[in-house]
Design a protein that fits this description.
296 residues; alpha/beta; 3-stranded mixed sheet; globular
């Protein structure tokens, strides 16, 4: 049963992504606007990167299963043949809020192909019908009945309007504006448990913090805390903050991120080392490559 209300409850069931047939679309209109500015490349991901990443993801799966987590993997699809992207980051295209599942209207429309590899898990999933609504699921962080929504390149105001209407009065949608105009929120605000949050000191100030979170204990992460694994420019150095919580006292992250881990350990949070050697190139860390379906 799908039931996940926050980012830190004890993990019971999850989707773990795959890098098989990863591809950078040549036909996606919005992605090509970036290509035309010369910032990214297109075409299939190198076989070496896919091979090494699959080894890392299989290891991640074993570590999750050792802790009793039920792990699903997306169905294999030939994204290269379809000139889509790939389902390395299931976090981006499907949003779970409580027992609700939303297939999100992504800005890179070709990414919606990824729904097909997971739809068998979500027979009751809904799609936003508002034509102007646009957001990736990773624009959103869940803190029980408080939902943080990043207004950015990958999430617009119309998307927030639709989400607010769909979730109803049970939830409060907090819009985060003028903070980060990149894509996703999970390298900016990382709630670790009720009352404790990790924050990106380069993007956030005390004034930006959602009102319900003002009195929480805060771990501020600076550039000096980060280890940058590669020179890839697809994803920022802040992907090091993109960790996955198993429960309130345990996270999965890159063991090389000692600056972050040291700060977590001071709050009695242990880190399980899961290397993702091409996280920057493939645009996703431990939170991105997973989609939690059930937490206690």
């Amino acid at each position: 049963m799908v039931q996940s209300d926050n980012e830190w409850g004890k993990l019971k069931e999850i989707v773990l992504g795959t890098s098989k047939f990863m591809n950078w679309s040549k036909s996606d209109i919005e992605y090509n606007k970036i290509l035309n500015r010369g910032k990214l490349d297109s075409g299939p991901a190198p076989d070496k990167i896919i091979h090494e990443t699959e080894i890392a993801l299989d290891y991640f799966q074993r570590q999750l299963e050792n802790l009793g987590v039920k792990v699903h993997r997306p169905k294999t699809m030939d994204y290269q043949k379809r000139d889509a992207f790939g389902n390395y980051c299931p976090r981006d295209t499907v949003l779970v809020v409580g027992d609700k599942v939303i297939l999100t209207p992504t800005r890179w429309r070709t990414r919606r192909v990824e729904w097909e590899s997971m739809i068998h898990l979500f027979p009751n999933a809904v799609k936003p019908e508002a034509p102007e609504a646009m957001f990736d699921a990773a624009n959103i962080i869940r803190c029980n009945n408080d939902i943080i929504y990043l207004v950015s390149y990958s999430g617009n105001e119309e998307g927030a309007n639709w989400l607010e209407s769909y979730l109803g009065s049970e939830y409060k949608v907090h819009r985060l504006r003028n903070v980060y105009n990149g894509m996703h929120l999970d390298t900016t605000i990382v709630p670790l448990r009720e009352g404790l949050v990790m924050l990106n000191a380069e993007r956030m100030t005390e004034d930006d913090i959602p009102i319900f979170m003002k009195n929480w204990d805060k771990i501020w992460i600076t550039e000096q805390d980060l280890f940058s694994q590669t020179n890839s420019k697809r994803t920022s150095k802040w992907v090091g903050m993109n960790l996955l919580s198993y429960d309130e006292n345990t996270v999965f992250c890159d063991g090389k991120q000692r600056g972050i881990i040291n700060k977590l350990e001071k709050r009695n949070i242990n880190a399980i080392d899961i290397p993702l050697p091409h996280a920057k190139y493939l645009m996703g860390g431990h939170h991105c490559v997973t989609l939690d379906l059930s937490r206690n």
